[in-house]
Specification:
binds zinc ion; alpha/beta; single chain; 2 domains; Dehydroquinate synthase-like, alpha domain; Rossmann fold; seven-stranded mixed beta sheet
Length: 381
């Protein structure tokens, strides 16, 4: 089976190995003549980035690059990016990278024509309607990892550099116009990033699948996304140049983010403040939290995971799935405890406070309170 496709759901996706070559025509289709490629510092000098800039330059589209993007991008990175965008006379953004490059690139396109501060567009109620939608620049997204799924998302996570709180900024037009999913771009990912990002995609699927809201489309996507991660992450981890495994993981990442329109849950509610306080890797943190959260949610989700286990070829219903998750984590050398990631008990009250106000709480199948979150953090520590 050739893993190539042109999809229009949830946005236009050009999927397949080598398709980064089609970036110039995607720019033209999106109305860009002078795009700004936004990526993080770590990626800026890698061959996949310089080769992509070469493709743009050869097509007469320049080689505009902004790379002052921190691993957890903040409002200062954003202001600098908007300035570079305006100074260079750009007319669109290519958001390139893992979560940080994708999220910041999307925000540069969003903010380049707004007059209000970015925090006015936090994902609360209808705050997004405050934005001037016509002033949002076109966005092309090119993922270089397989996990976040931000390439098919309508929001970005921006950290407030003063309060160290991660805020979700939402607008429907932040969904990229065109996505190029080229699995060859992920071949050079180090093994621990392959595992961490892949397990982030898995957490998106598991949490969307667990969420109580009615959304059968997302439910189906989450289930197949779990299967792809189960079958292909071990292969991509073992042999980074296995293009079939890399392609299936790239699909799973986009599917996880599509599915979590249905909701996330306690894993992400815990992982966001942990990441903000201890600067841990997002996907790895999720993986460490998952067994404790499955135990906690068991009364509400055991039936549903009976079906999932059957579909995934795991014996023993929910208990079998729970055991599989621990073995799966172990096979990628994921620590068993949050304390192994450097999380300390002394900061627990702060983590609980951060978790309780996290928007992900709303999708958990059992209502989260300060008491049960404290118990959950303790179980995961
Ligand atoms: Zn995530």
């Amino acid at each position: 089976m050739s893993l190539v496709g042109n999809w229009s759901y949830p946005t236009a996706i050009k999927f397949g190995a080598g398709r980064i070559k089609e970036l110039p025509e995607a720019c033209v289709a999106a109305g860009m003549k002078r795009p700004l490629l936004v990526t993080d510092k770590g990626l800026a000098d890698l061959p996949i980035t310089t080769a992509t800039l070469d493709i743009l330059e050869a097509a007469g589209l320049g080689r505009g690059l902004f790379n002052d993007v921190d691993p957890n991008p903040n409002e200062k990175n954003l202001a600098a990016g908007v300035e570079a965008y305006k100074a260079g006379g750009h007319d669109g953004v290519i958001a390139f990278g893992g979560g940080s490059g994708l999220d910041l690139g999307k925000m540069v396109a969003f903010m380049c024509g707004q007059t209000r501060p970015v925090w006015d567009f936090e994902d609360i109620g209808d705050w997004w309607t405050r934005a001037d939608a016509d002033a949002i620049a076109p966005i092309i997204a090119v993922p270089t990892t397989a996990g976040t799924g931000s390439e098919v998302g309508r929001a970005s996570v921006i950290t407030n550099s003063e309060t160290h709180v991660k805020k979700i900024i939402f607008h429907p037009k932040v969904l990229p116009t065109v996505v190029i999913c080229d699995p060859e771009l992920t071949v050079g990912m180090p093994q621990f990033i392959t595992a961490g990002t892949g397990l982030d995609a898995f957490a998106h699927c598991v949490e969307a699948f667990s969420s109580p809201h009615y959304h059968p489309m997302s439910q189906g996507i989450a289930l197949e996304g779990m299967r792809l991660v189960k079958d292909y992450l071990p292969r991509a981890y073992k042999d980074g140049s296995d293009i079939e495994a890399r392609a299936q993981m790239m699909s799973a990442a986009a599917m996880g983010a599509t599915a979590f329109q249905k909701g996330l849950g306690a894993i992400h509610a815990m992982s966001h403040p942990i990441g903000a306080v201890f600067n841990t890797h997002h996907g790895t943190t999720n993986a460490v939290c998952m067994p404790a959260v499955l135990d906690f949610n068991a009364p509400a989700v055991a039936d549903r995971f009976q079906q999932a286990a059957a579909y995934l070829g795991i014996d023993g219903g929910f208990d079998g799935f729970r055991a599989f998750v621990q073995e799966f984590n172990d096979s990628f050398a994921i620590p068993r405890k949050l304390s192994d990631l450097g999380v300390t008990e002394t900061r627990l009250p702060e983590l609980v406070k951060g978790a309780i106000i996290d928007p992900s709480c709303g999708g958990n199948p059992i209502e989260l309170t300060e008491d049960n979150l404290t118990a959950l953090f303790n179980a995961a520590l």
